[in-house]
Amino acid sequence: MKHQLDFEKPIMELQRKLEELEQHPETHSLGISFEEEIEQIRAKLSETRRQIYSNLTPWQRVQLARHPRRPYTLDYLKSVFSDFQEIHGDRLFADDQAVVAGFARLGDTKVVVIGTQKGRETKENIRRNFGSAHPEGYRKALRVMRLADKFGLPIVTLIDTAGAYPGIGAEERHIAEAIAVNLREMMLLQVPIIAVVIGEGGSGGALGIGVADRVLILENAYYSVISPEGCAAILWKDRAATAKAAAALRITAKDLLELGLVDGIVAEPLGGAHTDPATTSETLKHHLTKILAELQKLSVDDRRRQRYAKFRSYGKFLEKKEATTAA
Asked: Which of 5, 161, 164, 325 meets the CB 3.0–4.6 Å disulfide criterion with 131?
């Protein structure tokens, strides 16, 4: 297994022993048949995997969400959707390749799909800007969403970004305004919208395509106003506190569901989506198909009313009553 994470070392050691024994059984027989020895290691490997992946900490789930072999938007466009036709450009400045958008089919249903896209290797990551969109990326997304609204096509957004790009050029072209306009306009769209956090869901960069009737999250993805590293640097002044920050932020799928910030969790295979992309895709497709059918039964007014109420309900606060003084 490539790209080994620290907490996966026990699994990797057992996997290595198993592969060596299967290739050279004669060098490992210790008074018992090598077939029996192989079965013992397989059983121990299976149990070790179950124990590790069933008890992941928030920080370990963040690491899985960032795994370089994890399926990205373009992977799901091939496995979950069909007949994808990409649309380029925002008609204002440029074509931001950190955002992929276009027409597709979900089963027999015509939809519009929009997602943030990272790269697999350095050259592609530079081209995709590591999945961090510029203002033109959000404006392209909005242009495509308006087309979907015009033609009555449901919208599915796939979120996987550490956040919107914070560079000087993005600021000059008003990144905050571009995201803010998306939040406003997505709230008013008449067609059904489903958002899925498939990896990283970072801050406003994620929310810029995340206003939806239903928000789903993959089991090992995360959704947060700030990265654990950023939180640790601000609150503890030390990156060593990253794991503590990840736990305090409550950014895992389970926490977000309990807080009412997402509407459902898409289960992943043991070990993460990258260990079995086909099963992950099939599970995601099932969720999308089911939820889309439910949303299409609602009237436009009911959908928009529920969407607005959903996001208005986020967050809680307490007001301290002023002390009254006797006259």
From this structure: 161
> Do 48 and 128 belong together in one domain?
no
Of 36-50, 216-230, 261-275, which range is least confident? Answer: 36-50
Torsional sign, CA 269, 272, 277, 281 = positive
In a domain, 16, yes or no: yes
Task: Please answer whether residues 112 and 144 qualify as being in contact, where contact means their C-beta atoms are separated by less than 8 angstroms.
Answer: yes
* Positive or negative: CA dihedral 312, 318, 323, 324: positive
Q: What is the CATH number of the domain that holds 241?
A: 3.90.226.10
Q: Residue 207: which region, alpha, beta or left (left: phi > 0; alpha: psi -120 to 50)? A: alpha
- Taking the C-alpha atoms of residue 300 and residue 192, their distance in angstroms, rounded to an integer, is 8
Whole-number pLDDT of residue 25 = 58
Which residues span the domain enclosing 224?
A: 62-312
Contact between 182 and 138 under an 8 Å Cβ cutoff? The reply is yes
Q: Does some domain include residue 185?
A: yes
Is the whole model's pTM more than 0.85, yes or no? yes
Do 76 and 96 lie in one domain? The reply is yes
What single DSSP character describes residue 223?
E
pLDDT single digits (tens) 175-199: 999 999 999 999 999 999 999 999 9
Q: Phi/psi at 133 (nearest 5 deg)?
A: -80, 150
* 202-213: burial string, b at 16+ Cβ within 10 Å, e else: bbbbbbbbbbbb
